[in-house]
Design brief:
This protein is of the alpha/beta class. The protein has one domain: Cobalamin biosynthesis CobH/CbiC, precorrin-8X methylmutase (Rossmann fold), CATH 3.40.50. It contains ten helices and six strands, in the order ααβαβαβαααβαβαβα. Strands 1-6-5-4-2-3 form a six-stranded mixed β-sheet, sandwiched between helices. Helix 9 links the parallel strand 5 and strand 6. Helix 5 crosses helix 6, helix 6 runs parallel beside helix 8 and helix 8 runs parallel beside helix 9. The longest helix is centred in the N-terminal third of the chain and has 15 residues. About 40% of the residues are buried.
Length: about 230
């Protein structure tokens, strides 16, 4: 039996709002540029900052953004060479727009790997941190994005200080009330702890962060087109 196709009717306009998708997109970015202070953002990272503001709706975000001057060049070069993106959360991985990736790059999160619960229990740490240890074989030259777990960022930095392979760039924007601000300050100061760890990075000072923020930064890094 063939089910007749249901007809759909647009509801009556009861509110005054813009519903032109392309116009909304263009106007949103224009509003961000009009309302944000981008003067302290490296010129080649401006679109990254704008996209992060767009993802969060927080025009004061740029005041807390710290972007290494070499971040964009290092991360884009790595992706162009086929490097993977390593993330701490599946929500970050899901937020990456695959069509923006230059080489159909792998976007990997090991949080659901069967080894993670055992490692976390053995080490007395979070699963997010334990999952980072599984990055080691893919870490060299990779683009790392941590948007959820401060423990994952701390664990990564401890691995690097212990001599683990170095990624091309780190987007460090974990969110939260315990350890988030501290982990990002540690990332900003990592070079001071070991001079050869001058890894290009992006961080957001304070408690703010999250998967949407990390994914928006990756999407802007992956392709300059806004």
């Amino acid at each position: 039996m063939t089910v007749p196709e249901k007809s759909h009717r647009r509801p009556t306009h009861h509110f005054d709002y813009s519903d032109d998708g392309q116009a909304i997109y263009v106007d949103s970015f224009a509003t961000i540029r009009a309302e944000c202070d981008l003067s302290q953002i490296p010129a080649d990272a401006e679109k990254i900052a704008v996209r992060m503001v767009h993802a969060t709706g927080q025009t004061d975000l740029t005041e807390d953004l710290v972007i290494h001057p070499g971040l964009v060049a290092a991360a884009r070069s790595a992706l162009a060479a086929g490097a993977p993106i390593l993330t701490d959360a599946n929500m970050v991985a899901s937020g990456v727009t695959r069509t923006r990736l230059p080489k159909d790059n792998d976007v990997l999160c090991f949080l659901r790997d069967s080894r993670v619960p055992g490692l976390a229990k053995e080490w007395g740490t979070t699963r997010s941190a334990a999952a980072v240890s599984l990055w080691e074989d893919r870490l060299e030259g990779a683009v790392v994005a941590i948007g959820n777990a401060p423990t994952a960022l701390f664990h990564l930095m401890e691995m690097l200080l212990d001599g683990a392979p170095q990624p091309a760039a780190i987007v460090g924007v974990p969110v939260g009330f315990i350890g988030a601000a501290e982990s990002k300050e540690a990332l900003i100061r990592l070079h001071e702890m070991q001079s050869e760890l001058d890894i290009p990075f992006l961080a957001v000072r304070g408690r703010r962060g999250g998967s949407a923020m990390a994914a928006s930064a990756l999407n802007a890094i992956a392709q300059e087109k806004e």
